[in-house]
Amino acid sequence: METGSPDDTGTTGAARAAGTAPDEPVWTGLPPGLLRMRRLLLVVWLGLLTLAAGVLPALFLGPAWAALALLPLALAVWGWVMLERNWRSWRYAERADDLLICRGVLWREETVVPYGRMQLVEVTSGPVERHFGLASVQLHTAAAATDATIPGLDPAEAERLRDRLTELGEARSAGL
C-alpha cells in the first residue's frame, strides 16, 4: 500500500492487526481478587443482618416473624450480581500524556488525569485488602475534584503504576 493512498488509515501494523486505531487506549481491568473480597464482605455483613432479622424476631415475636430474614437474603442476591457489574465497569489506561480511569454501570464516569498535574501518588492497603493481596492507587492533583483512585490492584502492579506515574509526573511537570 502506498503512503497517502485512500486505504492508508495511518495505523501501525500492530494496531491494524488488532483492529484498533493507534490513539485508542489499551484498557486494563481490575483483578478478580477485588470481586472476591467485596463478595465476601457482602456475605459476612448481610449474613449477620439475616441472622439478626430472622432469629431475633422469631425468638421474641414468634416463628412467623422469621420471614423478615428473606429481605436481607434478597438484598444479598441482588448485591452479588451488582458487585460483578460494578467490578467489570472499572478499567484504566495509561496514555502518553495522561491516565484514564473509567467506571460506572448506570452512570459512566471517565476521569482523565494529566501526568503533569499529579502532585502525589499513594499506594494504600487496608487489613482486608492485604489479606486478599490487593492494594489501591490514589492520585492527588491540585484540583481536589480530579483526585482518582484505582482499587483492588495486585501490590506489585500498584507499586509499578505508582513508580511509573511518579516518573511521568516529574517529567511532565518540569516545564511548569
Structure description:
By secondary structure, the chain is an alpha+beta fold. Helix content is 45%, strand content 22%. It has a 4-stranded antiparallel beta sheet with strand order 1-2-3-4. A 3-stranded antiparallel beta sheet has the order 5-6-7, with helices on one face. Strand 2 and strand 3 form a beta hairpin. Mean pLDDT is 83; it is low at 1-17.
Map the helices and strands.
Blueprint: H1 13-18, E1 28-29, H2 32-61, H3 70-89, E2 91-94, E3 98-103, E4 109-114, E5 118-124, H4 127-131, E6 135-141, E7 148-153, H5 155-173
Antiparallel strand pairs: 1-2, 2-3, 3-4, 5-6, 6-7
Helix pairs in contact: 2-3
How does the major sheet shape up? 4 strands, antiparallel
| Number of H/I helices | 5
Tell me the β content. 15-25%
Are there runs of 5+ residues with pLDDT below 50, and where? 1-17
Say how many strands there are: 7
One letter per element, helices H and strands E, the order comes to HEHHEEEEHEEH
Assembly state (oligomeric): single chain
Residue share in helix: 40-55%
Q: Measured on Cα atoms, how large is the radius of gyration? A: 23 Å
Termini gap: 43 Å
Based on secondary structure, the structural category is: alpha+beta
